[in-house]
Design a protein that fits this description.
The chain is mainly alpha-helical. The protein contains 27 helices and 2 strands. A two-stranded antiparallel sheet has the order 1-2. The longest helix is centred in the N-terminal third of the chain and has 37 residues. It starts with a helix and ends with a helix.
Length: 576
């Protein structure tokens, strides 16, 4: 075997192993989350405390089967009449976009919700930087403790220098074009990868309609800006892979690094993109990919130094190492008042207790992390239950904290009654919206499973880029601080697979409908995709029919119904 044949063999092995690994892991995690959503749901109170509530699996199965049945009847009717579902025109998409922009702008004007918590702290740091007050970078200051916020602070400072110091409303308004760009470039990436323009255009509409993400238009914390530039960057990297234009690659990976500058969690996007480039370099043996890989590492290092240098130039303070990274992992493995792995103040307390000394704090944290890991390893039953509840708390809230981030916000205007009823806990409108958001989760995860099953033979690793990002986010937040607003972006990026999954599902139904008599029945029974789909529902029915302890502790999470009902009744009295 010569060197070329050897490299081809290695490339084929890596290609198959990568595809199977990504697909199987995504399928396992998505199935687990889907099952949890079928048996229970997660809600939050206004203090971000988690409640686990019971859901009727039979009701959810009936709802899913009914909607899929209606969809199948409609699809078969269209197919038999030989009609084609029209593709949304450019003009229609433009009209929808403008309506979307106007509606969000009206929403912001009606809300005018002032930033709170970390949003507020970051804005204050930017305001102080522009005013010549550098106290946030002094020992114990906000940016001293959280140096990963420096990139966002510099960006906000730049905006405030143009639109007025402390003008948080302009930042909220800029979230609107960011949301549009995220939806547009995500849909364009799907068009590029799947070569299906109709799929791309319908996906764009679904992304715009994703309620939890739209709630974050008031969020002044880098989430949307970071996701926006990251998705543009990944799209350009994919264009480089498809068309071999290195300029796309350079600009693309630079934007992905910039996204990490807006929000540190988007490091997952950078790592995922670099893995795709590495895969392309090995499997297709592209020298340009090797060049882009080196550039990505170099630019990442240089960009970090540029932020630190800019902070030192303006403030005179060197960027501190801040709270050790392991502190967040340690906290993510602890119990808390909010929920398992949720914020409990540990990271701040341990840093303050050790006099803001990063190295000393890291030594203490390493020991406490080791002790906690030992506890989890020794009590495996507790560990499994802990991670199951932590997973549900992050992925099983249909709003992904979209309503919560707006509820406890002061405003410069008086909210209209219908707006209060929509956002504040306690009202019937709010409760119905939360329930509808949870019901939508069933269809998200089921659509993803449809995609993984029905497209498993044709899909390639490049088309699995969203799955790679999801896997990174799922594993990362399994150990990191838990929060629905963190997992939101990964659920959002699985919507392309959901839309593709239902597209394939109804196409399969149409083909089966062409069969006659026994052949039609035989085709259904022998279809491997149908068999796998039946297996999913059979699994849910089996779980619903059993009372095994380990299932109750991992999938059937509930028990807070009475406490939550008491909270809702109290909130209703407050808002009346």
């Amino acid at each position: 075997m010569n060197s070329k044949e050897y490299l081809d063999t290695v490339g084929n092995i890596i290609q198959k192993v990568s595809k199977i690994s990504i697909t199987v892991l995504t399928f396992i995690f998505a199935t687990f989350i889907f099952c949890q959503s079928m048996f229970g749901r997660v809600v939050l109170n206004d203090r971000e405390h988690i409640y686990f509530l019971e859901e009727s699996a039979w009701k959810n199965i009936g709802m899913i089967v009914f909607i899929l049945f209606i969809g199948a009847i409609v699809k078969i009717g269209i197919h038999k009449k030989q009609k084609v579902i029209p593709m949304p025109s450019d003009r229609f998409l433009k009209i929808v976009t403008w309506v979307y922009v106007i509606c969000l702008a009206i929403f912001l004007i009606m809300m005018q919700a002032e930033p709170r918590a970390d949003q507020k702290f970051v804005l204050e740091c930017a305001t102080k930087l522009l005013s010549g007050d550098y106290s946030p970078w002094n020992i114990g200051g906000y940016c001293y403790q959280y140096p990963h916020q420096n990139g966002l602070v510099l960006f906000l400072t730049f905006l405030f220098s143009i639109f007025g110091n402390g003008n948080w409303l302009i930042v909220q308004f800029l979230n609107i074009p960011a949301l549009c760009a995220i939806a547009y470039f995500t849909s364009k990436m799907v068009e590029l990868l799947f070569e299906d323009k109709k799929l791309s255009r319908y996906l764009y509409l679904v992304l715009l309609a994703f309620f939890p993400m739209n709630c974050y238009v008031t969020f002044v914390y880098g989430t949307l800006f970071g996701l926006c530039v990251s998705m543009i960057g990944i799209y350009l990297v994919m264009r480089f892979i498809k068309q071999s234009h290195i300029i796309y690659g350079f600009i693309g990976i630079s934007l992905v690094v910039l996204g990490h500058g807006f929000k540190s969690n988007y490091l997952i996007f950078f790592v995922g993109t670099m893995l795709i480039i590495l895969y392309d370099m090995i499997v297709r043996r592209k020298r340009l990919s090797a060049l882009l890989l080196c550039y990505g590492v170099l630019f990442y290092m240089v960009f970090g130094m540029l932020i630190s240098s800019a902070i030192h130039h303006y403030t005179g303070f060197s960027a501190n190492q801040g709270i050790p990274t392991k502190s967040w992992i340690t906290m993510g493995l602890q119990e808390g008042k909010r929920g398992p792995g949720w914020y409990n103040g540990y990271v701040v307390k341990v840093f303050r207790h050790n006099h803001y000394d990063t190295e000393k704090t890291e030594e203490v944290v390493e020991q406490q992390l080791s002790d906690r890991m030992q506890e989890l390893l020794e009590d495996k039953s507790y560990a499994i239950a802990f991670f199951a509840k932590k997973t549900a708390s992050q992925w099983n809230d249909g709003t992904f904290e979209g309503l919560w981030i707006n509820e406890r916000r002061k405003s410069v205007v008086e909210w209209q009654p219908h707006l209060k009823m929509l956002i504040n806990d306690g009202s019937i409108t709010n409760q119905k919206l939360i329930q509808m958001s949870h019901d939508w989760l069933h269809f998200l995860w089921l659509g993803v499973l449809f995609f993984l099953i029905l497209d498993r033979k044709k899909v390639d690793v490049y088309q699995l880029i969203f799955a790679i990002l999801f896997l990174g986010g799922f594993i990362f937040h399994l150990f990191w601080e838990a929060k629905g607003q963190y997992t939101l972006v990964y659920a959002y990026l699985l919507i392309p697979y959901m839309v593709r999954g239902y597209q394939l599902f109804f196409q399969t139904i149409s083909r089966l409908a062409d069969k006659k008599d026994k052949k039609w029945y035989q085709c259904i029974v022998q279809n491997s995709s149908v068999q796998l789909l039946c297996a999913i529902f059979a699994t849910v029915i089996f779980i619903a029919s059993t009372n095994l302890t380990w299932i109750d502790r991992t999938l059937k999470l509930s028990g807070d119904e009475a406490t939550y009902q008491s909270y809702i009744e109290q909130k209703w009295q407050e808002i009346q």
